[in-house]
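To assess whether the prediction recovers the assembly geometry, we first specified each molecular entity separately, as shown.
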Amino acid sequence: EPEVTQTPSHQVTQMGQEVILRCVPISNHLYFYWYRQILGQKVEFLVSFYNNEISEKSEIFDDQFSVERPDGSNFTLKIRSTKLEDSAMYFCASSESGRGRGGYTFGSGTRLTVV
Amino acid sequence: AQSVTQLGSHVSVSEGALVLLRCNYSSSVPPYLFWYVQYPNQGLQLLLKYTTGATLVKGINGFEAEFKKSETSFHLTKPSAHMSDAAEYFCAVSDRQNNNDMRFGAGTRLTVKP
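The predicted structure of the complete assembly is given in tokenized form:
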């Protein structure tokens, strides 16, 4: 069964450093998403991406965050200057259709720890 | 904007007992509705979804959910709990008209006692 792949599975970084979280969505999917889950809390929407541009973003997704699809397979989330409160599990997802009609396929997540 | 509320952050049942996890949504139009399961240290796995058609939806692992428009609910059930069902369950909603994202409930942690 097709999978969404995320790397690394765990990243530790110092406060103020830049991090890039990487995702390889399912190959025929057109819509891509990032979510985060702070430990013990709910899964929060960050951003959706379609046709090489952001289609929706939440209030969490401020100027410190950016997304990119640098080639035909990768989808990245960059945090420019990490803060302690950015520590969370970050999930990438992709879907074939928009508005979640078919459901999203999620990756296993990247656990980001900011120290 | 759509939102979803899960009643009960923790539910504990005995093995073999009925599982009932509650989810109510708020949306201006009937949304797409989903249940996801998250096992410890893993990602989110789709259990089932409602988009259109039959309101009783069957998913994986013996789970099912019923869309009730009059009650704005999408409760998840399983007739007989198994130890392996212990996990976090998330209800999610997507607006079929306006927004291109999916919003999750706060989650319900299911514990299954032997």
